[in-house]
Amino acid sequence: MVIRRLKNIMSENTYPQRKLPRLKDFDYASEGAYFVTICTQNRLPLFGIIEEDQMHPNDAGKMIQQVWDALPSKFAELALDTYVVMPNHFHGIIILVGNAQRGIPPSSKSNSIPETDDHAGSSLQKINLSDIVHWFKTMTTNAYIRGVKENNWQRFPKKLWQHSYYDHIIRNEVDLHHIQNYIINNPTKWAEDSLFIQSPTS
In the chain, which residue ranges form alpha helices assigned H by DSSP? Predict the structure, then answer.
């Protein structure tokens, strides 16, 4: 079981407190759980709106969910935990329980996910958190551009996502539960969020 393996991983390791966007000497391919936050460029609210403390994703937001859900099919030995699409950012927990990599099987591909994949057909190799986030950003950007062209989605200037992303190494079960609750409750705290920006009403 993934959760049982995750508990074992967290009990075997003591991770340092995060201070910088990337820990200089930390191996981000090592087994463990990681909390990531990825923001749109200029914090544009492109993925839906918050109404009555609930996130209502638009078609672009649903695409973001779909690409995220495809990650375990793309990367072997990867599992997903709690996540949420917000109007202008994304929170999610990634669990690494191995370091093999594979391409997405044809049966797992969706029409909303571009077939251009710079990892497809590659031999098994060690992956790290940056590889995963890069693939996610690339696939969602390509799909969003297609949505702009074919479905008149809102345009974005130059880049869909900010260049970097925030990551936090989850150290133990208490940390995990705290972050899970933070993600689940993010829509209800939207007006207090440091990333808050007024979403369009239509």
Answer: 2-12, 59-69, 71-74, 129-151, 173-185
Longest dimension (CA), the chain: 49
C-beta neighbour count of 4 within 10 angstroms: 8
Specify which residues 155 forms β-bridges with.
Answer: none
pLDDT of amino acid 202: 38
CB contact burial 103-126 (16+ within 10 A = b; e otherwise) = ebeeeeeeeebbeebebeeeeeee
SS3 content of the chain, % helix, strand, coil (to 5): 35, 20, 45
- The pTM for the full model equals 0.75
**Does 41 score more than 60 pLDDT?**
yes
State the first-to-last Cα distance of the chain, in angstroms, to the nearest integer: 43
Copy the structure tokens of residue 138. Answer: 């690339």
Question: Distance (Å, rounded) from C-alpha 33 to C-alpha 173?
Answer: 10
